[in-house]
Amino acid sequence: MLEFRYDTQLLIEGKNLSEDAINDYITSNFEGDSLLAVRDDELIKIHFHTNRPWEILEYCSTLGEIYDIVVEDMERQSKGLKG
Questions:
Q1: Do the domain assignments include residue 27?
Q2: Label partner for 80 (CA 20 to 30 A): which of 42, 45, 62, 73?
Q3: Which residues have C-beta within 8 Å of that of residue 9, sequence separation ≥ 6?
Q4: Can you give the pTM of this predicted structure?
């Protein structure tokens, strides 16, 4: 069994987004691992493994418009099922 079951990925579009601030906030406030917060001019891509993906989505929605949301169940995937 995996410690953190859901692979959560999304894009945030907004102004003045700081990948360091987002990284620090997620690390300090949510349980999970494998965090990536990568940005370009107006987008930040988030990748995070957690058991509570809805909390990440809720937080990120306060920062800007979120889209391209993907939540995959890695436990199901490890059994050869669709995630």
A1: yes
A2: 45
A3: 45, 46, 47, 48, 68, 69, 70, 71
A4: 0.91
Q: Report yes or no: 72 and 47 within 8 Å, Cβ to Cβ.
A: no
pLDDT in tens, 36-78: 999 987 899 999 999 999 999 999 999 999 999 999 999 988 8
What torsion, rounded to 10 degrees, do the Cα atoms 68, 73, 74, 76 define?
-140
Q: How many residues does the chain have?
A: 83
Domain range for 13 is: 6-74
19-42, pLDDT tens digit by residue?
999 999 999 999 999 999 999 878
Q: How far apart are the first and last CA of the chain?
A: 15
Number of domains in the chain: 1
Q: Dihedral of the CA atoms 78, 79, 82, 83 (nearest 10)?
A: -40
